[in-house]
Design goal:
single chain, alpha/beta, Arc Repressor Mutant, subunit A, D-Maltodextrin-Binding Protein, domain 2, 3 domains, eight-stranded mixed sheet, two-stranded antiparallel sheet, 11 helices, about 40% helix
Length: about 300
């Protein structure tokens, strides 16, 4: 038994239109072509599907076949749509903005995974501060960004991820020299660091570090503010103070420093998303959708 989609499409169109002439106009075919397609389907199924009256109506066999015909056509249309989306994505370029710690600590593994799953998709990375990445995304200088704690959007499946895909839940830790008295501890309370100058790199982390001190009921008084993470690391190495850093920065920490868990516990969410103020490119949606298919360890710290 050999069925084909044109036969099914003609049958469904005749039922929906109530006649062969209107169905032919809807399909852009001649009436004889539609009639021939339906007759061929009836021969294949060994029974009449339609009563040729005005309007046309289905036989018992037609009733039994109709819902399955609709499902088959819907499935075929879905295949075509999926192929079209893939084609639109395959040759695209996505400009992806992210902060330095994300670019260095999280993005390399993601780029490797994306190159395996979406080999024809080109990703151009733009590194900037948290404020810069959000501005680039809003102004269309970037197509997507890895942002920190975006606001939740109604209707998303995972409200924790706001308007995109949750890549990592990134806890904050304290960065200490190896010879610091607390370096060997499993957990350090913020209050235990009161005598150590706090070195701060404000790039997107200051509000979280401020929250940590508020949770502990402590005054927030950073001793130094530096822009570059390399400067912060050098100052901690020199014994000039300690720093509170997100887990995603761990790959950048040299061997003579350690990251220790800190209490009260506090973390941030790293989310891959498109712009809030305009439609997403198909390629951006493909990246976001692909995150759900990545192993948890490939996304980041969760």
């Amino acid at each position: 038994m050999a069925l084909n989609l044109p036969q099914l499409r003609a049958f469904v169109a005749v039922v929906d239109a109530g006649g062969f002439g209107t169905a032919a106009a809807d399909l852009g075919l001649s009436q004889s072509a539609v009639s021939h397609a339906v007759a061929s389907l009836e021969r294949t199924l060994a029974g009449p599907l339609l009563v040729r009256s005005t309007p046309v109506h289905t036989t018992a066999l037609g009733d039994a076949v109709l819902s399955h015909a609709r499902s088959a056509l819907a499935a075929a249309d879905a295949v075509v749509d999926a192929a079209a989306r893939h084609t639109a994505t395959a040759e695209a370029t996505v400009r992806l903005a992210a902060t330095p710690t994300v670019c260095q600590g999280l993005l390399p593994s993601l780029l490797r995974r994306w190159s395996e799953r979406l080999p024809a998709l080109r990703i151009r990375v733009f590194e900037g501060s948290g404020e810069e990445t959000e501005a680039w995304l809003a102004s269309a200088a970037a197509d997507a960004a890895i942002v920190v704690d975006p606001p939740p959007v109604a209707g998303r499946e995972d409200p924790r991820a706001g308007s995109g895909a949750l890549l990592a839940t990134d806890p904050f830790l304290v960065l200490l020299p190896q010879d610091h008295p607390l370096a060997g501890e499993e957990t350090v309370h913020v209050a235990d660091l009161a005598d150590d100058p706090l070195i701060l790199s404000p790039n997107g982390c200051e509000r979280h570090i401020r929250t940590l001190h508020q949770l502990a009921g402590l005054e927030y008084t950073p001793a130094h503010r530096v822009r570059d993470l390399g400067t912060l690391i050098s100052m901690v190495q020199a014994g000039l103070g300690v720093a509170i850093q997100p887990e995603v920065s761990r790959p950048l920490v040299p061997d003579d420093l350690v990251l220790v868990r800190i209490t009260p516990h506090h973390s941030r969410r790293l989310v891959l998303c498109g712009p809030q103020n305009r439609p997403w490119q198909p390629a951006v949606q493909a990246l976001v959708d692909s995150v759900a298919q990545l192993p948890t360890g490939a996304r980041g710290v969760v």
